[in-house]
Batch of 2 targets.
Target 1
Amino acid sequence: EVQLVQSGGGMAQPGGSLRLSCAASGFTFSNYEINWVRQAPGKGLEWVSFISSTGSTISYADSVKGRFTFSRDHAKNSLYLQMNSLRVEDTAVYYCARRDYGYYGMDVWGQGTTVTVSS
Amino acid sequence: EIVLTQSPGTMTLSLGERATLSCRASQSVYSNYLAWYQQKPGQAPRLLVFGASNRATGIPDRFSGSGSGTDFTLTISRLEPEDFAVYYCQKYDISPRTFGQGTKLEIK
């Protein structure tokens, strides 16, 4: 079965750190870019970051640039979002999602993981 | 940064009616790299349309996407009960790959 399974998340204080994981199975991991998308409580979707299939290209939304780091481990078919200097406004459900090269959209999504930043 | 504006914010329609959702970009979207997603409460988004007009795998043919440049449309030809949800457009040509603010489709 093609799937992305997320783990990590939880609660942190402002200024703290968390790491999210996204494990891929059922497809050739190295053929797809992966995106992170988040959704604050009661709000719409916000694109956070993407990493290319090879890991050579990574891009971030301005809201997280310099604080979040996206990496992928091809040996483990896994991806990681290291979130540092967390802010209250980072509170959201975070989703990882795969996208094929070219004009394809994000067709497989993880189940989502909740991050709560509060003092 | 390109801004996507979806309209209307909320749409109230009856079963069997036609729904037309709009997504307007502040600048042209390169190669029509524009997707539509459906999201129901407590669920991850689901890809409906990519490349502005291509239905994703398994999506019923009552869903269709059209448009180019700065103006895009998602049409649902005959509303079924499971279609009432929130719909988002997203551009993914260059970063930032922004989403529109969403259109909530409610049942009358």
Note: Chain A touches chain B at residues 35, 37, 44-47, 50, 59-62, 95, 97, 99, 103-107, 109-112 (CB under 8 Å).
Target 2
Amino acid sequence: AQKITQTQPGMFVQEKEAVTLDCTYDTSDQSYGLFWYKQPSSGEMIFLIYQGSYDEQNATEGRYSLNFQKARKSANLVISASQLGDSAMYFCAMRKIQTGANNLFFGTGTRLTVIP
Amino acid sequence: DVKVTQSSRYLVKRTGEKVFLECVQDMDHENMFWYRQDPGLGLRLIYFSYDVKMKEKGDIPEGYSVSREKKERFSLILESASTNQTSMYLCASSSGANNSPLHFGNGTRLTVT
């Protein structure tokens, strides 16, 4: 079974600084996808960024980038220029590429707090 | 924009009651999912469906069942609610593409007393 590990239950960052949220995964598959979601206190799950296992370039979406190191099986999320609105839970997730439904396996999350 | 709507934001039920959680999506997605979220445990998959009337067990299906009679609607059923089913329940949908994200509803916080 796929396993996603987020070792940081909580993180603090100063406003305008960059922060890295760690994610490692365990799979024997060659084809998979990695996702990051943000969950603010309102509870909605917001999709942030996607990285495919065969993508050679690290994914970027605005202030979010994914530091993908395939050999180390890590997919860390980097948030640049942190804003107060970035305070939220962040979840890393993985999808096994297969026929049929394409469910995601989630990590336990990291709570990020941005300090003014 | 994809919209996934869960019928209730908060629900309080008594032990032993039969509970229905409803979810509707408006993007004609083939795949729909029910997750439960608990502090320190992340999101865990209960059931998913990749087509009408098709369903597959996820990681924690015990005590739950699902129904998908129409493509846009996916219902989660607690046959006899128990206190350990007190949790946040999240419904999601996605297209069949490998890089397609899951689109989530706002969640239903269920309390079983």
Note: The radius of gyration of chain B is 13 Å.
